[in-house]
């Protein structure tokens, strides 16, 4: 069958890859699967139930879940095939943003995963005149449950109405409105059509490796990134297209356990997760002591010295792989074919290290507005430090100021109810302005230098690209998070969140008292002096105008809940500065 709309992926899977375990979610400690046929049948029930509720094409339905689960997938299918528009919302955003999104999109019904999210929505419900009802996936006393919609649609007599509606849906019809996480100002509603997403899935598909000896339905995926984010959602359709089994992880905290249970072949990741995985590996390897630690550090040296990325070739590389790196692969379940990385820049040193450890990482690049993939590395053509070749159906143009602009079928329709902002992000000849700076090298690989909006100018008139400096700084074991600042100031400085776990181990080894709490450690003169040496070393690699002259340590871990990280673990720069404004003022000698 020809795939033209996002709901066609599920139908394609039923026709070509019917299986018993299409989607698998853990409920009350047990993995529960749903077959391809059951998935489509339930989606049809949802469609019929929504029609009985009075839902019409173009009506908006919000989906909010703490962790991705099968119910979300069923709702997405049921909503899309009757021409309604899904509005996936991040669970962690503020009630004020909920209220803005619901009113901006004229949301009629909302489906949430649990009591906590229900309470959050109920608080703003009186302020949203369009909102008719809220349903939960979990059984919550006193709340309407999504099973009521399934029951409403249990009568198959109205399936012909569903079929007629789905047949009438055009590829250019609106499929979803995805609101940005609102790092600055109010969230923007990105309008994506069926064609936008389908075109991106089909163009990205050739970049995913095929494995000899494995049937498509034998390949297991572990999905943990928020499905309200277009990166994971596009992959969600790509997995359906290929007939893979998708296991939805319980949470980031339980990733380790879920990996052991599922033994996945493919996972999508963000750079922060790769950094955390490596930090755990390093801590375990260096704390083993004696001969084990010496072998571990020797193997890292062999890995670093390896010239050609890929399988071990010489005797030392084979020994290092056998003794150390095979354990890394076992730690990721033993079956990993590839990790697909997106959302932010991955440190090249970590990318190379994992590649040489037999854990291929396909790093890509894109935005919500581009559905999302613009470019991605592919098997056999990985170039560390780049985001791969541009997808075949896209045209990328580097503007005179270095900004990456793109044109093609996966570029969004515009911002919902905001024509002025839509016009601002397109060039006169129709290219979407990504806001990123980069270049394409002689081999066709795209390099991302920095975010155009994140680059700043010091009072001396020199431009500084903070993300490049931050990625280099995080190579230090002492630094978990860092934000380089200095817009309009005389010099760059930095706010640093130490890796408090590593600091404790370091202090114990050195018999230094730095305290036990993050606040005590951040105020430790010994720790600040030691991190100062890391900054001094970093500065040797930087131009004089971009060297970090002063820094302050923050007394807490930067988290999504504290509002300084996005749901995909990127810095909210404005929020970080506001939260630590006293430390910022101290660095620059500003009066409070």
What does this structure look like?
The protein folds into 3 domains: 1-33 and 194-275 and 334-452, Rossmann fold; 35-169, Rossmann fold (3-Layer(aba) Sandwich); 456-588, ANL, C-terminal domain (GMP Synthetase, Chain A, domain 3). The longest helix has 18 residues, at 36-53. Strand 5, helix 5 (115-124) and strand 6 (133-136) form a beta-alpha-beta unit. The protein is α/β, with parallel strands linked by helices and 592 residues long. It is 38% helix and 20% strand. Residues 12-416 form the AMP-dependent synthetase/ligase domain. Keywords: ATP-binding, Ligase, Nucleotide-binding. InterPro entries: AMP-binding, AMP-binding_CS, AMP-dep_synth/lig_dom, ANL_N_sf. This is Long-chain fatty acid--CoA ligase.
The second-level CATH architecture of the largest domain is 3-Layer(aba) Sandwich
CATH topology of the largest domain: Rossmann fold
Provide the number of structural domains: 3
Strand order of the largest sheet: 2-1-11-10-12-13-14-15-16
Largest sheet: 9 strands, mixed
User: Helix tally?
Assistant: 21
> What is the residue-averaged pLDDT?
92
Helix share, percent: 25-40%
According to CATH, the homologous superfamily of the largest domain is: ANL, N-terminal domain
Q: How does the overall form come out from the CA principal axes? A: globular
Q: Which residues form runs of ≥5 with pLDDT under 50?
A: none
How many extended strands? 26
CATH class of the largest domain: Alpha Beta
Structural class: alpha/beta
State the separation between the terminal residues, measured CA to CA. 65 Å
Strand content: 15-25%
Q: Over all CA atoms, what is the radius of gyration?
A: 25 Å
């Amino acid at each position: 069958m020809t795939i033209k709309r996002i709901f066609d992926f599920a139908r394609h899977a039923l026709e070509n890859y019917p299986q018993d375990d299409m989607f698998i979610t853990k409920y009350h400690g047990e993995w529960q699967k749903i077959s391809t046929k059951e998935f489509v049948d339930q989606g049809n029930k949802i469609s019929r139930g929504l029609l009985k509720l009075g839902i019409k094409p173009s009506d908006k339905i919000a989906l909010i879940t703490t962790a991705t689960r099968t119910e979300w997938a069923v709702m997405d299918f049921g909503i899309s095939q009757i021409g309604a528009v899904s509005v996936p919302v991040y669970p962690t955003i503020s009630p004020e943003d909920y209220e803005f999104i619901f009113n901006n999109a004229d949301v009629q019904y909302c489906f949430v995963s649990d009591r906590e999210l229900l309470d959050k929505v109920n608080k703003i419900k009186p302020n949203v005149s369009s909102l008719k009802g809220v349903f939960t996936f979990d059984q919550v006393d006193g709340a309407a449950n999504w099973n009521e919609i399934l029951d409403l649609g249990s009568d198959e007599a109205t399936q012909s109405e569903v079929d007629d509606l789905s047949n009438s849906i055009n590829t250019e019809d609106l499929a979803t409105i995805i609101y940005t996480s609102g790092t600055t100002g109010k969230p923007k509603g990105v309008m994506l059509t069926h064609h936008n997403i389908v075109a991106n899935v089909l163009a990205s598909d050739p970049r995913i490796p095929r494995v000899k000896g494995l049937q498509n339905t034998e390949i297991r995926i572990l999905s943990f990134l928020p499905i309200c984010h277009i990166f994971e959602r596009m992959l969600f359709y790509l997995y359906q297209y290929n007939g893979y089994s998708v296991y939805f992880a319980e949470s980031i905290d339980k990733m380790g356990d879920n990996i052991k249970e599922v033994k996945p072949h493919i996972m999508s990741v963000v750079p922060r997760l790769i950094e955390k995985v490596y930090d755990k590996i390093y801590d375990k390897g260096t704390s083993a002591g004696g001969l084990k630690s010496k072998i571990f550090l020797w193997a890292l040296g062999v890995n670093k010295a390896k010239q050609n990325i890929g399988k071990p070739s010489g005797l030392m590389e084979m020994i290092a792989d056998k003794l150390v790196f095979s354990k890394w692969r076992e730690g990721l379940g033993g079956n990993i074919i590839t990790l697909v990385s997106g959302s932010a820049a991955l440190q090249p040193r970590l990318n190379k290290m994992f590649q040489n450890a037999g854990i291929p990482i396909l790093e890509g690049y894109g935005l919500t507005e581009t559905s999302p993939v613009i470019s991605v590395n592919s098997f056999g053509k990985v170039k560390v430090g780049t985001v791969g070749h541009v997808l075949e159906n896209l045209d990328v143009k580097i503007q005179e100021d270095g900004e990456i602009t793109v044109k093609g079928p996966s570029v969004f329709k515009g911002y919902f109810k905001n024509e002025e902002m839509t016009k601002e992000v397109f060039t006169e000849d129709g290219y979407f302005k990504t806001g990123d700076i980069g270049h394409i090298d002689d081999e066709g690989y795209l390099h991302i230098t920095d975010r155009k909006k994140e680059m700043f100018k010091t009072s001396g008139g020199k431009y500084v690209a903070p993300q490049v400096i931050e990625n280099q700084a995080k190579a230090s074991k002492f630094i978990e998070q860092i934000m380089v600042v200095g817009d309009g100031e005389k010099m760059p400085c930095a706010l640093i969140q130490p890796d408090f776990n590593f600091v404790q181990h370091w202090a114990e080894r050195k018999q230094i008292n730095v305290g036990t709490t993050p606040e005590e450690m951040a105020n430790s003169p010994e720790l600040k002096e030691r991190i100062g040496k890391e900054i001094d070393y970093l500065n040797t690699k930087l131009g004089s105008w971009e060297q970090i002259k002063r820094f302050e340590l923050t007394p807490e871990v930067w988290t999504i809940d504290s509002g300084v990280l996005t749901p995909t673990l990127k810095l909210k720069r404005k929020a970080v500065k506001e939260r630590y404004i006293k430390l910022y003022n101290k660095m620059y000698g500003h009066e409070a």
